Amino acid sequence: MTVPNAGGWKERAHAFLLAVWRFLPLPARRLAIRILYPRYPIGAVAVVRDAHGRVLLVRQTYHREGVRWAAPGGWLSRGETPRQAAVREAWEETGLRVTAGRVLAIDGGPYGEVSIAFECEIVHDTGFRPSQETDQIAYFALSDLPRMTVDTRRLLENALDAQTRWLRADTVAANHHE
């Protein structure tokens, strides 16, 4: 005789929550989500390009293997959206005020994080100030990107590829309407 699988405690708790979810106050729903579902760190990245198509990178000082370059970015703070984090990180790491537009790429990394790269545009430059985290900023041609981690390079290349495809599509659409 086969006994039906009763499932683990998470499956039973999930079934129970589905039955009572609409009756739970918001704090109880938040607690249930935190208990039942794993949490992942979320990273937000600002992809900024100049008029020549070069991409803005910051030199990070804290890697075990020595300095590495990356697009400005970092972890979301509590209550912050990914777009807000990309704008904040660009400001903190470069002194640039940016607006965050469309999502260019989503990927993961060595910490089990989810990283989201946003197309950003500079709205104000207050000047770069070196910090313990970043000591230089520079624009790089896509064919001449400096040393960076494998995960960082993959996210950046995916973001730049998407941006290039969209720019081509925007150009074709604009020419079609003329």
Structural class: alpha+beta
What name does CATH use for the topology of the largest domain? Nucleoside Triphosphate Pyrophosphohydrolase
Order of helices and strands: HHEEEEHEEEH
Query: How would you sum up the global shape?
Result: globular
What is the second-level CATH architecture of the largest domain? Alpha-Beta Complex
How many strands in all? 7
**The CATH H-level homologous superfamily of the largest domain:** Nucleoside Triphosphate Pyrophosphohydrolase
Report on the structure:
With 178 residues, the chain is α+β, with helices and mostly antiparallel strands. It folds into two domains: 9-39; 42-176, Nucleoside Triphosphate Pyrophosphohydrolase, CATH 3.90.79. It has helices spanning 9-20, 26-36, 82-94, 150-176, and strands at 42-48, 55-60, 68-70, 73-75, 96-108, 114-125, 134-140. The strands form two sheets. It has a four-stranded mixed β-sheet. It has a three-stranded antiparallel β-sheet with strand order 3-2-7. It is globular and about 55 Å long.
